[in-house]
């Protein structure tokens, strides 16, 4: 659920990158951090082992002017892929506004992908949430590797449902579709917040409860981050 700080004129949205160990979650945040203007993002906070696996979580805050009159912050987190750190995963997933599931495309990691997906669903349920209630984007990472499974197989494994998710083929180390993934999930999160504003009659300009939120409060079509111009700050 978005955090609204009316006095500071700040909106905060939480986007969590999930997936099996070494699937490329941290690589996504590193690429985003390297591409964005330093004035529009925080430093990347990362806690990893010597084997470069995330122990607790990575964190990166990105600022954009998507909401008129407010500083809009997208706080990006990763969660550890190892089952050993399941409690950390559950904690980080609390109050998430959107999910990016980073799948490892290598054929021998498909069982791990499926287990990680099921673990994500279970932890959301434990938090009183559901995968069906959140904007979700699937990223099929490591498409550059020779043993990458066919995209059709990944779609069957992870995206075989009535309401299909948006999915991207990616190479997080080289940057392919990393920003497109972030653009898409951010826009979906904003659209869901816009719908909530209308449904719950939230007015960002008033402290009075029950005031209707004008249609113009949120931009329905957030300006996209182009690969050539990768700044989220207008």
Query: Residue-averaged pLDDT, rounded?
Result: 85
**Which regions contain 5 or more consecutive residues with pLDDT less than 50?**
208-231
Helix content: 25-40%
Class from helix and strand fractions: alpha/beta
The appropriate CATH architecture is: 3-Layer(aba) Sandwich
Total beta strand runs: 8
Shape: globular
Which strand-content bin applies to the residues?
Answer: 15-25%
CA-atom Rg in angstroms = 18 Å
Identify the CATH class: Alpha Beta
Main β-sheet, in a few words?
Answer: 8 strands, mixed
The CATH superfamily name is: P-loop containing nucleotide triphosphate hydrolases
Q: Number of helical segments?
A: 5
CATH topology call: Rossmann fold
What does this structure look like?
By secondary structure, the chain is an alpha/beta fold. It has a single domain (3-217), classed as Rossmann fold (3-Layer(aba) Sandwich). The protein contains 5 helices and 8 strands. The chain has helices at residues 25-35, 86-93, 110-126, 151-158, 178-200, and strands at residues 3-5, 10-18, 45-48, 54-64, 71-78, 98-104, 136-141, 166-169. Strands 1, 2, 3, 4, 5, 6, 7 and 8 form an 8-stranded mixed beta sheet that branches. Strand 3 and strand 4 (54-64) form a beta hairpin. The chain starts with a strand and ends in a 34-residue tail after the last helix. 39% of the residues are buried.
């Amino acid at each position: 659920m978005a955090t609204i700080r009316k006095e500071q004129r700040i909106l905060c949205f939480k986007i969590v990158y999930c997936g099996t160990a070494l699937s490329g979650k941290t690589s996504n945040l590193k690429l985003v951090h390297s591409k964005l203007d330093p004035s529009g993002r925080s430093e990347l906070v990362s806690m990893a082992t010597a084997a470069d696996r995330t122990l607790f979580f990575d964190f990166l805050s990105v600022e954009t002017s998507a909401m008129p009159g407010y500083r809009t912050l997208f706080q990006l987190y990763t969660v550890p892929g190892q089952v050993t750190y399941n409690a950390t995963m559950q904690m980080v997933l609390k109050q998430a506004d959107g999910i990016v599931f980073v799948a490892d495309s290598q054929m021998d990691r498909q069982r791990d992908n499926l287990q990680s997906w099921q673990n994500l669903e279970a932890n959301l349920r434990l938090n009183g949430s559901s995968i069906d209630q959140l904007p979700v984007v699937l990223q099929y990472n490591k498409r550059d590797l020779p043993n990458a499974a066919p995209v059709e197989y990944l779609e069957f494994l992870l995206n075989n449902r009535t309401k299909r998710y948006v999915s991207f083929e990616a190479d997080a180390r080289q940057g392919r579709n990393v920003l497109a993934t972030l653009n898409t999930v951010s826009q979906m999160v904003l659209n869901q917040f816009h719908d909530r504003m209308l449904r719950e009659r939230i007015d960002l300009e008033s402290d009075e409860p029950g005031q209707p939120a004008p249609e113009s409060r949120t931009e329905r079509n957030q300006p996209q981050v182009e690969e050539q111009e990768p700044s989220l700050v207008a």
